[in-house]
Amino acid sequence: MSLLGIIAGGGELPHAIAQSAATAGRKVHVLAIRGSADEAWLPEFSHDWMTLGEWGLSVRLLAAAGAKEIVLVGRVDRPTLSEIKFDTKGLMILPSLVAAARKGDDAMLRVTSDFFAREGFTVLTAMEAAPGLVMAQGPLGKLTPDAGQQEDIVRAFAIIRALGNLDVGQAAIVCDGLPLCVEAAEGTDAMIARVATLRKNLRGTPDRKRGVLAKGLKATQDRKTDSPVIGIETVRGALAAGLAGIALEADACLIVGKSVVAAEADRLGLFITGVRL
């Protein structure tokens, strides 16, 4: 297997993908984005640093490391373009970035993916880079949703699909048919925390769980640059918000620490299930 280049933003997913690739016997080189990537795990792997404007440098560093296949993963807080210092290659694509910025994050990520493809790299999806993290169809742990929860799952995914055309979020929470929350720029875990602030007659409690979190691809989403992901904190947050479980789009969502997440969901009495749409 050829060396995998990982352009890493923040969050747990870049580390999980690097570990998964290394476990499979693949060499890894991480190109960490300053101000976004977590420094704590980087010493485990060969790595370099870049800023958001250093497009030419990123190509040179990845090529020098021997990367032919790359994956772009992790959270990057979007700055204003005026705050970024672009190198020569960055300035060349700046007009495309400006145009894409008006259309939303998905459009900007697509410009980024296309740039690296033109530079001769094969851009993998996170699922291709780390297939062991992918959620399959069916239950992850011991519990499964009942008929009422299944109806909430269907409604939540319908909301994700409808709002995804507007580049809004990857997740929604529905309780007994009532939409409680839709993910925006704050991220899934912050969205779940908002549900815990609602009146108890609208939501469940840890002792009387109601409602489901659904997470999947937006209609406009580029799989190469942005995969929906959950981890153990998502499960714990779901319990704190009184949810009964989590539904993930099968073959489209990733789980960081799958076995640990499954065990925690069983311990807390929540279901996690993969749904094929």
Task: Please characterize this protein's 3D structure.
By secondary structure, this protein is α/β, with parallel strands linked by helices. Helix content is 36%, strand content 19%. It contains nine helices and 13 strands. The strands form three sheets. Strands 6-13-11-9-7-8 form a six-stranded mixed sheet, with helices on both faces. The protein has a five-stranded parallel sheet with strand order 3-2-1-4-5, with helices on both faces. The protein has a two-stranded parallel sheet with strand order 10-12. Helix 3 runs antiparallel to helix 4, helix 7 runs parallel beside helix 8 and helix 8 packs parallel to helix 9. The longest helix has 18 residues. It starts with a strand and ends with a strand. The model has no long low-confidence stretch (mean pLDDT 92).
Key traits:
single chain, 277 residues, alpha/beta, Rossmann fold, Cytidine Deaminase, domain 2, 2 domains, six-stranded mixed β-sheet, five-stranded parallel β-sheet, 9 helices, 13 strands, globular
